[in-house]
Design goal:
Elements (H helix, E strand, L loop, with lengths): L2 H7 L3 H17 L3 E5 L2 E5 L3 E7 L5 E5 L21 E5 L7 H17 L9
Antiparallel strand pairs: 1-2, 2-3, 3-4, 4-5
Helix pairs in contact: 1-2
Length: 123
């Protein structure tokens, strides 16, 4: 079992279900690699694409590192007062907007493959 799967097993109920569902989707369907970074699961191909962050309210914050560069035509991503990262809060598997999430992931992966990520450092 991987470190990410061990991380997910530490949670219970719907949080565990949602994280396992997303983990399987990201690693099997989209062939992303997963690692624990900053104490949460991150998923990447060339660079970090997204991460799962269990919330204290019992949901899972599914976040996209380069959310500010995504179109969000689906209107489901929320910046939560962040400039770069956008996310969607998922409480149960039934809350997952499958088609919209697949579109966003495909756009995020295309961005990862075609536009090099650069960190802008403050002067």
């Amino acid at each position: 079992m991987s470190a990410v799967e061990n991380f997910i097993y530490d949670y219970e109920g719907t949080q565990r279900e949602v994280m396992f569902y997303l983990h399987h989707m990201l690693t099997a369907d989209f062939e992303l690699t997963s690692k624990i970074r900053y104490k949460i699961p991150f998923y990447y191909r060339k660079t970090w694409v997204c991460y799962l962050n269990p919330s204290k309210q019992g949901g899972v914050d599914f976040s996209f590192i380069r959310g500010n560069e995504l179109s969000n035509e689906q209107g489901i991503l929320d910046f939560k007062d962040r400039k770069q990262v956008s996310s969607i809060e998922l409480l149960t598997i039934d809350d997952i907007p499958h088609d919209a999430l697949y579109e966003i992931l495909q756009e995020a992966l295309l961005l990862d493959e075609t536009v090099p990520y650069s960190v802008r450092k403050k002067k």
